[in-house]
């Protein structure tokens, strides 16, 4: 652990990313909403030190200056320095394998949605972990078909900063158009930010927005959804 950079090295950088990131998040009004959650200074520094990423990156700026960001009425939760009172973990807390600092770098969970879909930065060997793409590229675990999808445009593959630009300036309505039900905004507003929506019949067995709207749904911890989808994959539910 002696090779870890100090908080001063990570925080006191010549070109901090926070001004640019703050300006980007402020442009959300005409696209998706983006609510920046506050973070206590010591919590932000702890998260920054935990992920060992400099404040010169959007990732480091999120950890240091925000408790996280709620995008599109809270449908997507972007991780930052953590907001325990709202149930949102910090980047460090959501990635406990980082604390071990052993072996190949793990994939990094950077956000999730209300369905339990996960946004993760690829680790050092994506193919070994059953993911598309290269190290450092951003993948999305699709809860509707239990598959990893590389996020990209025809011009380039997403990294973390491009993913944030997509969340703020892109079209999440199109991205999620088969997965939303009437009144989803009110349902999402009633959740803690460590909760998602569970469906019965299971989401991977439902075909499109009409079946999703007709299914029973209830709030559950997002961690429960993560585990549930792994169980579905093992059991072959919704994969064939």
Description:
It is a single chain. The chain has 240 residues and is an alpha+beta fold. It has ten helices and nine strands. It has a seven-stranded antiparallel beta sheet with strand order 1-2-3-4-5-6-7, covered by helices on one side. A two-stranded antiparallel sheet has the order 8-9. Helix 3 runs antiparallel to helix 4. The longest helix has 14 residues. It is globular and about 50 Å long. The model has no long low-confidence stretch (mean pLDDT 92).
Fold topology:
Blueprint: H1 7-11, H2 18-25, E1 34-37, H3 41-51, H4 58-65, E2 68-71, E3 76-79, H5 91-94, E4 108-113, E5 118-121, E6 138-142, E7 147-150, H6 160-169, H7 172-175, H8 184-189, E8 195-200, H9 208-214, E9 216-221, H10 222-235
Antiparallel strand pairs: 1-2, 2-3, 3-4, 4-5, 5-6, 6-7, 8-9
Helix pairs in contact: 3-4
Pfam family, one: DUF2625
Organism: Actinomadura rugatobispora
Protein name: DUF2625 family protein
Features:
single chain, 240 residues, alpha+beta, two-stranded antiparallel ribbon, 10 helices, 32% helix, 18% strand, DUF2625 family protein, DUF2625
Average pLDDT? 92
Structural class, by secondary structure, is alpha+beta
Number of continuous helical runs: 10
List low-pLDDT spans.
Answer: none
């Amino acid at each position: 652990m002696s090779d870890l950079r100090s908080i001063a090295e990570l925080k006191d950088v010549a070109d901090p990313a926070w001004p640019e990131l703050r300006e980007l998040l402020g442009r959300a009004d005409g696209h998706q909403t983006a609510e920046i959650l506050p973070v206590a200074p010591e919590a932000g520094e702890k998260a920054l030190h935990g992920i060992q990423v400099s404040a010169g990156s959007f990732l480091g700026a999120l950890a240091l200056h925000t408790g996280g960001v709620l995008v599109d009425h809270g449908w997507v939760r972007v991780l930052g320095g953590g907001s325990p009172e709202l149930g949102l973990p910090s980047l460090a807390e959501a990635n406990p394998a980082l604390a071990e600092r052993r072996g190949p770098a793990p994939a990094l969970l950077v956000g999730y949605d209300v369905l339990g879909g996960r946004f993760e930065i690829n680790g050092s060997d994506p193919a070994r972990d059953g993911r598309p793409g290269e190290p450092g590229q951003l993948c999305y675990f699709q809860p509707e078909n239990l598959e990893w999808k590389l996020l990209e445009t025809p011009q380039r593959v997403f990294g973390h900063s491009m993913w944030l630009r997509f969340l703020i300036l892109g079209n999440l309505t199109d991205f999620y158009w088969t997965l939303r039900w009437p009144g989803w905004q009110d349902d999402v507003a009633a959740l803690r930010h460590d909760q998602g929506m569970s469906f019965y019949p299971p989401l991977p067995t439902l075909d499109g927005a009409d079946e999703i709207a007709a299914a029973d749904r209830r709030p559950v911890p997002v961690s429960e959804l993560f585990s549930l989808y792994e169980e579905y994959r093992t059991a072959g539910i919704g994969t064939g």
